[in-house]
Each structure stands twice: as C-alpha cells, then as structure tokens.
C-alpha cells in the first residue's frame, strides 16, 4: 500500500500498489488474522465452565456487581432510544451510580412487564417500563432473557418487540463490558439459544436494512480495527512535523499529509458512528471518536456552495423543493446537496469540513472535563444537591468523549486511549466469535477481511482487488486476487479447506 495525495479527480487516500505477489500477501494476512482470532477465542472459552445448568425464570442472571458496571452504558443508550423516531422507549431518569441499583424488586406496579396477558392490540407486546431506573430489576432476571421475538407487519417492529429489542441491546452491553459468563449461562437454555441465533442478523422487516442484529457489533469493530492499524503503518500521516518545519499540532489542526483527509478514514468514521437505531452497537465508537449521536446517517446533506470549490459534489446538488431540506424563504428554493453515504466522495473534503458538513460537532465532555467542572462548582460552595442537577442539565453528568485531544485518534497524547480502543475492538471480535460458536453460527471472517480491505483501501479506476467465484457452500467461495493489469490471479478460499 501507499499514500495517494488528493488530486482531482482522485481522492486523498491509501491505495494498493498492485504488486505481483500482493494476492498471496493479503491471503496470508487474512489467514494469520483468523488463526489468531480462533486461538484467542479458544483461550477465552476455557475461562468459563464447559456446561451450565439452564436457568429458571426467577433466577437473577445479572448480579449486583455486573449491574453496577453496565448501568451507565444502559443509561446512555436508553436515553438515545427515547428520542429515536418510532421506538417509543421511555427515558431513564436515573442510572446506577456506585452503590445505587434499581430498588423496585417487589412493587410490581412500579416495575412490571405485560408479556403474557391478553394484549390490547395484536401488534403490541404490551411491555410497560413503569420504572425510571436505567436497568430495571426485572430485566436482570432470566425471564427477561426468555422473551421471543414477534414477527409483525411492516413498520410495527418496535411496537411488537419493544421488550425483546431492549433485551438484545442489553445483551450487546453485557458483551461490551466483558460479562460473557452471563450470556453463556443464558445460552444453556435451548429456547434462549435459538432466539439469540435468530438475532444474528436482523432488521425491522425483510424489506429494510438488516442492522439490528448482533452481527453489526463485530462488523463495525473489525472495520475500525483494520483501518486504524493500517494507518499506523504510515507514520508520515500522523507523526508531528520534523524539526526545522512548522509544527501544526494544535487540537483539530491538520498536518500537510493527514490521515484524517483520506477516504479510508472518513468512510470508516462515518460507518462505525452511523445512526442505525441500535445505539449499543455504535456507542463505544461514538465515544472514542467524539462524534455525537445521529451526527452521521445513511445519507449526507450539504450546502450547494461546497460544489463551487469541490466540483466532485456538483452532481449531487438538487433543488430543495425536491429534497424538502433547508427550504428557502418565501417561494424561492435554495440549492442543496443530498447523497447516500455509500456514494459519498470520501477523501475529497478536508477533515474539518467533512466532520462538520451538515452540522457542527458540539463539544462533548470527557471524564477530565467533568471532573474539572465539578471542582469549579464545589469551589463556589454549592451543595451536592445542586451540583448533580446542574451537571445533568449541562449534559456533563456522563463522559461522552474519551480522547484528550478530540478528533485525532493517532495524536501522541491520545496513544493510551487508542490502545485501549483497539484492545476493545479485538476483544469484541473474540467475544462475538465465541458467542457464534456457542450458538452454532458461522462467521466468514476471511471474507469479511477481504471485503473490508476492498471498501477501505483505494485502487485505480476500474481496478478490482479480487473477483469472487461463488460456490453453493458460501464457506467455499473463491476470492481471485487481481494483481496487475494482466490480471494474474492468486486463488484463496473463504476458509481453510
């Protein structure tokens, strides 16, 4: 691979060199990656009992310690879902700070679930969140793990599966925090195991994108893990300027050749932080990259003046009367741009313009910011009873950004957080590979690596990384790597024979 500077019509990107032995090298990399993943998965599974006793409905699967560890994360994605269109999930008003857990252990009127009683509507599961706590006590019982998905009509998924959807987000949160033992114990029940397998890849209905399943977690983790590790191989794109040259290391400033300007990085950033109505999937990526919820979506809107300086955007400029966005005053219609995310010309805009294309990214507080503001409030002699609501009103009650230097993951001062994030991405791959094996599901890791490289690493026009010869068994699909213009090939199977 090599760095390609932006030069119309080519984007700024990292591209393949298309050397004669490139196919063998990529195939060898994928084989080594998958083998390391399988070895780590085997070692991880050995940490837990080989078999579990199937739980009873009243058993508490999420103990107090685990509930304390995950409640803040649940609080974040519950509040995100409370403002999502069509989901109708009530906002959580409290989350488990230190010793505080949901106290509604016996009062059914405050924390109840109408899973079994006669429903008023056929397409409504009747679930009621009568408890303001982020993680209601009833959700920690095995009975919550035993819910079955209802197959509703189109556009009625959330009404019919409010409780089941909430629980699957909770399962993703458990695996995010490494509570694998809880999930494995739940999978010892055949009905739960079958239901989790059905949630591998799911959407609201068959005619909509399949983005609600737990497969999206490991797919996004793989995308981020590969892209950031590839960029680390090119120090010139992220290291400070050498001595004798003007340094440009202020927060948010760009280097002359900056990895954040590449199509590879911009595409990955928009993908893993995208609004896909399953916030438990994208939350760790949004917090690491410092991108607020719903900032990126499956389409981009932008003002038409961008096309003046960047002609590649001209074909996406449309009349607002057609798009219904940013309408002009009176009868006059402005011009605006509208393009699907998969067609967006990544790498043609400088990073700061790309990041703030539709809306300016607000300042998101880190844990250091919250601690500093808290000290200032206490220095004003304010009591705790006032400090806590003030922080909440200012959106400073929970950290929403992890990087000390925002929007520059490879900055020297962000190195510790970058290593933690890459470790988290790898651990997610291991945990979900373990879950897939427990459920008897197959994950084509090798094919996913090839596809990720094809999406993120640039190539000359009309050049392809590989062609696929499909087999009846998907695990036997052949990937023919095209190494140069003579299209010499190297064949690799999707998995070892």
Strand order of the largest sheet: 3-5-4
> How much helical structure, as a percent, in the residues?
25-40%
Sequence of secondary-structure elements? EEHHHHHHHHHHEHEHEHHHHHEEE
Characterize the largest beta sheet: strand count, sense, and whether it forms a barrel. 3 strands, antiparallel
Describe the protein's architecture and organization.
The chain has 497 residues and is mainly alpha-helical. Among the domains are: 2-48 and 447-493, no CATH class; 64-213, no CATH class; 299-355, no CATH class. 39% of the residues lie in helices and 7% in strands. It has helices spanning 22-45, 64-82, 142-145, 157-160, 162-176, 180-187, 190-198, 215-232, 263-272, 279-289, 306-309, 320-323, 351-355, 367-379, 384-393, 415-439, 445-456, and strands at 2-4, 13-15, 299-303, 317-319, 335-340, 466-469, 478-482, 489-493. A three-stranded antiparallel β-sheet has the order 3-5-4. Strands 6-7-8 form a three-stranded antiparallel β-sheet, covered by helices on one side. Strands 1-2 form a two-stranded antiparallel sheet. Helix 8 runs antiparallel to helix 9 (263-272). The chain is globular and about 60 Å long. Mean pLDDT is 79; it is low at 107-126, 243-252, 320-333 and 484-497.
Features:
single chain; 497 residues; mainly alpha; three-stranded antiparallel sheet; 39% helix; 7% strand; globular; disordered C terminus
């Amino acid at each position: 691979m090599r760095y390609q500077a932006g030069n119309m019509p080519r984007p700024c990107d990292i591209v393949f060199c298309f050397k004669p032995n490139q196919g063998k090298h990529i195939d060898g990399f994928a084989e080594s990656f998958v083998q390391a993943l399988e070895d780590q998965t085997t070692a991880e599974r050995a940490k837990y009992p080989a078999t579990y006793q199937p739980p009873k409905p009243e058993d508490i699967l999420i103990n107090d310690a685990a509930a304390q560890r995950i409640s803040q994360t649940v609080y974040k994605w519950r509040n995100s879902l409370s403002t999502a269109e069509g989901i109708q999930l009530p906002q959580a008003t409290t989350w488990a700070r230190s010793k505080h857990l949901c106290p509604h252990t016996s009062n059914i009127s405050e924390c109840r679930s109408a899973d079994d009683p006669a429903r008023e509507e056929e397409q409504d599961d009747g679930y009621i969140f009568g408890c303001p706590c982020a993680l209601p006590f009833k959700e920690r019982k095995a009975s919550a793990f035993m819910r079955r998905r209802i197959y509703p009509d189109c556009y009625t998924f959330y009404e019919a599966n409010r409780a089941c959807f909430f629980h699957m987000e909770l399962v993703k949160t458990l695996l995010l925090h490494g509570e694998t033992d809880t999930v494995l114990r739940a999978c010892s029940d055949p009905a739960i195991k079958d239901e989790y397998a059905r949630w591998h890849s799911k959407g609201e209905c068959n005619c909509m994108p399949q983005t609600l399943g737990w497969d999206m977690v490991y797919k996004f983790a793989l995308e981020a893990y590969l892209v950031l590790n590839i960029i680390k191989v090119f120090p010139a794109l992220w290291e400070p300027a050498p001595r004798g040259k003007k340094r440009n290391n202020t927060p948010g400033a760009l280097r002359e050749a900056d990895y954040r300007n590449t199509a590879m990085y911009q595409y990955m950033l928009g993908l893993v932080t995208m609004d896909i109505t399953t916030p438990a999937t994208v939350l760790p990526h949004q917090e690491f990259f410092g991108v607020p919820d719903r900032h990126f979506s499956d389409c981009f809107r932008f003002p038409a003046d961008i096309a003046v300086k960047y002609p590649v955007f001209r074909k996406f400029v449309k009349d607002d009367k057609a798009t219904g966005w940013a309408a002009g005053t009176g009868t006059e219609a402005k011009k605006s741009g509208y393009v699907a995310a998969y067609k967006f010309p990544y790498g043609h805009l400088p990073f700061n313009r790309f990041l703030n294309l539709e809306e300016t990214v607000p300042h998101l507080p880190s844990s250091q910011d919250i601690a500093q503001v808290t000290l200032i409030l206490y220095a004003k002699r304010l009591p705790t009873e006032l400090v806590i609501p003030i922080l909440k009103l200012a959106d400073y009650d929970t950290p929403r950004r992890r990087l000390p230097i925002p929007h520059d993951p490879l900055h020297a001062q962000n190195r510790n957080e970058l290593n933690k994030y890459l470790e988290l991405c790898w651990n997610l791959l291991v945990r979900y590979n373990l879950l897939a094996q427990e459920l008897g599901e197959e994950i084509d890791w090798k094919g996913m690596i090839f596809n990720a490289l094809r999406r993120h690493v640039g190539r000359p026009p009309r050049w392809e990384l590989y062609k696929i010869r499909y087999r009846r068994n998907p695990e036997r699909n052949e990937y023919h790597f095209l190494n140069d213009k003579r299209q010499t090939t190297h064949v690799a199977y999707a998995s070892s024979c």
